[in-house]
Amino acid sequence: MMQPLFVLDNDSPANLQQQLIQKLIQAIQNGHFACGSKMPSTRKLAEQLGIARNTVVNAYEQLIDEGYLISKERSGIYVAEDLYEQHAQNASHKKPNQENQQHEQNWQQRINKLRLDKLASPYPHNWQQYPFPFIDGQFDPSLFPVQQWRECSKLSLNVNEIKTWASDSGHDDDALLAEEIRTKVLPRRGIYANPDEILVTLGSQHGLYLLTKLLLNNQTLITVEEPGYPGIRQLAHQAYSPIHHAEVDEHGIIPEQIPQHTDLLYVTPSHQMPTAVTMPQQRREALIAKANDDDFIIVEDDYASESNFMSSPHPAIKSLDSQGRVIYVSSFSKVLAPGLRLGFMVGPAPLIKQARQLRTLISRHPPANNQRVMGLFLSLGYYDQALRKLNQEMAVRWQELREALNHYLSTHIVTSRTMGGSTCWIEGPSQLDGQQFAAEAAKHGVLIEPVQRFFASTRNNGNGGNNGAPQNYFRLGVSSIPTDKIREGIELLAQIMRQWQDDSSGTDTARSTNQQNWGKRLKGEQLRDFASRVEFIGQTVFGDPYRIRLYADGSMAGWEGYQDERQDKGQWWLEGDRWFRQWKDWSYGETLGFEIYIQKNRINWVRDGKRVDSAFYLLHSNEPATETSS
């Protein structure tokens, strides 16, 4: 019966004729239609599949042209008799005898021993099947500019365009793409370069590979960030280059930790990989000054440079370079799609010339048709549109993540303070095992990223964890999860963390839920008097300051941020000895009730027997409130 062999999908991106051709080839290759056998008539096959006869006729004609089928006059359509003759001969050969097996090659001995760590993906291959994928660097189809990319792809296929990119251009890049990078992309980062100072790459990793091949050996010291991007460590290991790991703080790599005899410094200043902190302008200037004084080269990987939501991006370190010692590396993949694999690097002309020659030995050049499509995409303004759309969506997701973390995990975690990006670096309770926590969360459909791979295997600073890496950290990303899933996912993650804490019976001394540490509970008129004239001063999980002021009429106002960027208003009231509040926007506008405890100049909010937040407090007179005065 034919029906089981051919099930065509009307929703498939391939049309019915293309699907039919694929199915017929598979049936021939699988032996359902043997060589020399007669094919069903076009009318019969069309009736069985419920498709137009012309579709079958066209499919048969194409397979005849390709040699799969032959047409016999007044007889019909047949599978070509000699289609797999050579294949049949090969299949008939006897298995190698024992003597031949003894002479099989030992490839483990022949292959050069490279210093490669395992490059396993931090995410399961079926991550899309998880309802809450808080991961980074994966493709989100909803953000890809399908229509604009399709238009540019079609434009690249007209006759004149094909003549431009189809011939072998040697080691040259697509002229349109290179010029668009030079005149549109780089000036946004404060960089102005000549054409011979730009090289198109197969993404940032390709650029880093070329640079480490050209600049590193067993005598050159490379300094990298700790924690930092694992890929650069891998490349340095291949070059047998000594590595120094300089720690990062809330502003990125610490200049004082860079050895004076460093030859090459690798940094990710826009959004440090993996903590996502942004390097301020003052530190960028300090880095370039140190490079000038100590005579080392800086490789600036401008990872996620334009995804700042709190302020405008800082100019690239390369823009401060007056001595030609900064090499700039970037990629289009972060904005468009990881599978695009197109990037570029900017450096002194002699270096770019050597990198171009080395690239020629590896891949000649990135696919010219893809370069042309990207060049058209830039020239028509579509890249700017895609970037704006991406940043708008990431800003919404990022803010939603901030709100959810503040609401559900405020007393459990601390995060690095970032200016944007698509990830958050999370410090959990001190006894948390990030890898075990990630495994447990995955069982509930929540994907988070353990962070051990970002730390050097030789690191040993006494913080515990695998290979000396701190174990109570993990990372959350929002580039692959819809906005409407973020709150639900974080709420579930908070439940898992609370359950983990209950099961482990361990508490973080800094976030203890022991009632003895909460102080004195306020009740009745004492609670009402306190609530009528108090102001709370604290920090969000992102380290941003906030103030909340309560008034005697039951109203309250809140300010968050260093310049009070986010504000809200709400109401408070008492029910018995519990204090209730409801914001207009903050905390999703939910009504929540708390028991209030004070200890010296701190207030603790307690709900369901657990402390959920803590802050300093002041009276409206700005005099510190005390237990006795309250």
UniProtKB/TrEMBL annotation:
Record keyword Transferase present: yes
Keyword Transferase among record annotations: yes
Top-rank lineage group of the source organism: Bacteria
Signal peptide positions (record): none
Xref: Gene3D superfamilies: Type I PLP-dependent aspartate aminotransferase-like (Major domain), Winged helix-like DNA-binding domain superfamily/Winged helix DNA-binding domain
Keyword terms, alphabetized: Aminotransferase, DNA-binding, Pyridoxal phosphate, Transcription, Transcription regulation, Transferase
Domain HTH gntR-type: 14-82
GO molecular function (one): transaminase activity
InterPro entries: Aminotransferase_I/II_large, HTH_trans_reg/aminotransferase, PyrdxlP-dep_Trfase, PyrdxlP-dep_Trfase_major, Tscrpt_reg_HTH_GntR, WH-like_DNA-bd_sf, WH_DNA-bd_sf
Pfam families: Aminotran_1_2, GntR
UniProt xrefs under SMART domains: HTH_GNTR
Similarity comment: family membership: In the C-terminal section; belongs to the class-I pyridoxal-phosphate-dependent aminotransferase family.
Name under which the protein is recorded: PLP-dependent aminotransferase family protein
